[in-house]
Amino acid sequence: MPRDLVRRAASRLRRTLTGTRPGTPGPEPVPLPVLGYVVAGGGGAHPASAHVRVVRRTEHLARSGRAEVRQVDPVAFVDGADETPYRALLVQRDILPRDQVEPFLAAAAARGIRVAAEVDDDFFTASGRDRLARAEYDPDRLASIDALVRGADLVLVSTEELAALVRPVARRVVVVRNALDPTIWTPGDTAVDEDLAVGEHRVLYMGTLTHGADLELLRDVFTDLTASDGLPVRLEVIGVTDDADGTGWYRRVEVPDGHYPAFARWLVDHRERWRAGVAPLRDEEFNRAKSDLKAIEYTALGLPAVVSDRPSYRDARDHGVVAVPDDVDAWRHAVRAAVDTGDADPVAARWVRDERTIGDDGDAWRSALLD
Fold it and tell me: What does the pLDDT look like over 82-112, one tens digit per residue?
């Protein structure tokens, strides 16, 4: 067929499919919704909680092409310098000073913008607030969270137990379980590590300073603990406490400086340093609202996880993670068995990969904010 006939046929087909004539502009593309977020830090350097609960998810959402995302300067938003037509604004924890919460909420309401608060700890019970106060949360920070949760259109939380605490004071609550970003938690080749265990087995415990009291649960577990091969089992702690090494029953590990993605990659690259990971939780009201983040992180590292048998780890227990009651002998037996195995339970590994990885954990987070 001559080329001009081919071009005419193609043009007729295009007009039939699009309803436009040659030279006629097509329909205007529908602009993507814009999600704004307010978190501590900037330029990719944020606290770990901000990365886990907000930043990693917003970056994944942007990569998916389903929305634009922008970190918001709350001062510029309130005074009108930021005129972006946000579909929603996600505000984490106590990032807004107490005296800025009401102006921020009022500015959003005036522009018809939904505000979602994000919290992942018990900031609501007396015992929870007392524990957070001991971890350097001053009264103004706690008051800021309370005002934000009460005034927001929506509150995102990480567990059903925390949702039950928030519902009496919030307008709407949505549970979105913590999930890991596959771009930083997918294992590759391990790094050359000159400090691999020789003559001992190592077990990892990592966490924030709110877990200092939980660490004490492990003292009698790891004191003089040996594996089935007779080698000593040594607990290594990252974070958790400011105290020096605990009279020989645990060792502090200092990791290279860097924000959360670099820290997570360091863990992934050095995962062969440990044989297992542990996550003890005291039977306290504050801990009942905790998430199972440690269990899924240890599992992503390929390590068998041993955790306290608490509501926080109920789902993890049902998917192969070992949950242990408050009994020293039971803990010693479980840790020894985990060290002997040295590998994450296959069921747990599949659960983390298929259900607790951002992008494979459902659409509840995006839907709650943007639909």
Answer: 999 999 999 999 999 999 999 999 999 999 9
pLDDT tens, position by position, 166-214: 999 999 999 999 999 999 998 877 776 667 768 999 999 998 766 778 8
> Which helix (H) or strand (E) covers residue 352, if one does?
helix 346-355
Residues 124, 258, single domain; the answer is no
Task: Report the run of H or E that residue 9 belongs to, with start and end.
Answer: helix 3-18
User: Nearest 5°: phi and psi at 100?
Assistant: -100, -10
Rounded-to-integer distance, Cα 294 and Cα 239, Å: 13
Alpha carbons 323 and 309: distance in angstroms, whole number = 5
Residue 17: strand, helix, or coil: helix
Look up the pTM and report it: 0.87
Same domain for 269 and 313, yes or no, is yes
User: What domain range is 151 assigned to?
Assistant: 34-176
Query: What pairing do the DSSP bridges indicate for beta strands 250-252 and 233-239?
Result: parallel
Token couple for 224? 């003089």
CA distance 342 to 249: 21
Sign of CA pseudo-dihedral 123, 365, 47, 243: positive
Same domain flag for 158 and 201:
no
State the burial class of residue 123 (Cβ atoms within 10 Å of its Cβ: 0-12, 13-18, 19+). Answer: buried
Domain co-membership, 42 together with 167? yes
* Helix residue spans in 216-253 (DSSP H): 219-222
Q: What is the CATH number for 167? A: 3.40.50.2000
Same domain for 83 and 157, yes or no, is yes
Residue ending a domain, among 176, 199, 228, is: 176
CA–CA separation, 230 and 268 (whole Å): 28
Rounded Cα distance between 304 and 12, Å, is 63
